[in-house]
Amino acid sequence: MKKFKRISVLLLAMVLVIGLAACSGNKKANVGGNAANSESKKPSAEAGAIDTSEFVKISYVILGDKPKNGQFDAALKEVNKIMKEKINAELEWKWVEWADWQTKYNLLLASGEAIDLITIGTDWLDTWGNAQRGAFKNLDDLLPKYAPQTWESIPPENWAQSKYDGKIVLIPEDAYTQWVNHGFFYRGDWAKEAGITDPIKDWDGMEKYMQFVKDNKQGVIPWDSQGGTSTFGGWVQSYTGNLELPLSTGYLPVFASKSEDEKYTVVSPVFEDTMINFAAKMKSWADKGFWREDVLNYKGDTRTLLKGGLTGVDQHHTQTFATLRVDMDREQPGSELQMYPFSRTSGNLPELSITHGGTSLGAHSKNPERALMAYDLIRNDEKVYRLLNYGIEGVQYEIKDGKRVRPASYDPKQHEFYSDFWGGRVDKLEIPSDTTWDQVEETLYAEYDKIKKTYAYGQFVFDKTPIEAEFAAISQVTGEMGPAITYGKAGDPVKAVEAFRAKLKAAGYDKIMAELQKQLDAYKKLIEG
User: Which of UniProt's keywords are assigned here (predicted)?
Assistant: First the structure.
């Protein structure tokens, strides 16, 4: 096999030499200028231009379940026609699917695999931890030359939030307006039947709603969730002033800062009554039959069941709600889907970090220059952007009166499209859509604007080096014990939480608390002088 590969490479090299001679010169890419307006221009071979004569494939690691209807593949094929023309490269989407996604994602980065572009998120994908482990390439010298449009469009203060150890290791998704604060989704029509006429404002309100569904909607599971989804962070947001820190402890958050007024003081909601109250509520919900008995092993799709009228609750963030509301209006007419954001109870709502989404370059990338050129096209070329984010015009969407609408021939199952690209969306290339609820800004966004707080940890980089082993052990404990507590399957709530705390202590909780406080003290000096 190896001999065959060597012969194949030699033959390919001969073909390339002959082909290049016939073409009279190397193909070059002009990475300056407006990409959206230069699609038909052949790049020149002037001095200093970038050599793209060798065709390469560029991988992009994405979080999400790979689409199975072929629509994304069709759009990517069109994208790659542009990639081939402009930078002589082909883009490959590499999916990390949601089943056990945290483990898969981190293992991929630790494996040494030669990945190119990869989705990052400092507040949910352990980006700083992976940067500390050397997972990403330094971009300082590469960006200005190979992604010049992106480089110029991001202000210095945002690049400052994209650095680890003084070096840029990520490209922030800083030019896209979104709210990804979480909450429960519930049917407004069923809530009215239950006598709930005002927006639900707390978890007791959700309980009343789910009890009504349990008692009155035959064949419907109130919340047909799966064990991989934890809502403890939502409970903390609802019933404390704690702020989420940009570090992940696996299944559920163990550490937080105390409040907006004491944002540099470390606390643990797990070691306060917050956790016991949550565990008791979840045990109560389990006993009431709000989810299926085998929830910890269940792998069903809650959102699909909601659209089918087979469950009454889902849980995710505001951006998801804005599109799901439109889907529900179509699939379940009159359902009037509503959202109870966890922040409504407490008024505890930080703005989104600009590094909640973004893109890094794998440390072992074999083609870092071309990868950044591909990224520059994705983020700035209008045709590429639309194909990757919206699909093919005429199939997935049409534009009428400045809005994206679905064509008359659109079949949701046949033509559904998504790319799960959260690595560099920009408002300037977004097209408003009729698939987004047109009242979300005047309702939820307006509510959020009244209570939002400035995100405090944009430049906080948690160094795990002194407590690497303890941190890994803590995350393992949350994965082992968190699901059972979250879904009321751990027996007596108080005893379950006590056992959980004991295991966290044994794993090194106190050492991590001390180190984290030390680093937040240093961060406070950095920010406040």
Answer: Signal
- pTM, rounded to two decimals: 0.74
Is 207 part of any domain? yes
The closest of 421, 427, 417 to 359, measured between CA atoms, is 421
pLDDT in tens, 424-450: 999 999 999 988 999 999 999 999 999
In a domain? residue 490: yes
- Average pLDDT along the chain: 90
Name the strands in the sheet holding 56-63, side by side, starting at the edge strand that comes first in the sequence. Answer: 89-96, 56-63, 117-120, 358-361, 171-172
Q: What is the DSSP string of 264-278?
A: T-EE-GGGSHHHHHH
Asked if 261 and 292 sit in the same domain, the reply is yes
How large is the average pLDDT for residues 295-310? 96
Beta strands in 103-210 (DSSP E): 117-120, 163-164, 167-168, 171-172, 182-187
Band of residue 455 on the pLDDT scale cut at 50, 70, 90: very high
Please check whether residue 230 is in contact with residue 251, taking contact to mean a CB–CB distance below 8 angstroms.
yes
For residues 123-137, average pLDDT: 91
Containing structural domain, residue 498: 182-351+457-528
Residue 148 lies in a domain: yes
pLDDT higher than threshold 70 for residue 479: yes
DSSP 8-state class, residue 44 = P
| 182 has pLDDT over 80 | yes
- State yes or no: pLDDT of 15 exceeds 90: no
Q: Are residues 385 and 331 in the same domain?
A: no
If asked whether residues 335 and 236 sit together in one domain, one would say: yes
CA distance 494 to 275: 9
Residue 82: both structure tokens together: 């542009």
Rounded-to-integer distance, Cα 420 and Cα 416, Å: 13
Give me the CATH number covering residue 471.
3.40.190.10
Q: What is the structure's pLDDT at 39?
A: 37
Rounded-to-integer distance, Cα 487 and Cα 251, Å:
13
What SS3 state is found at 324? helix
> One-letter amino acid identity for 25?
G
Q: Which two tokens stand for residue 468?
A: 């690497």
Q: Which of 504, 65, 515 is nearest to 303 (CA)?
A: 65
38 belongs to a structural domain: no
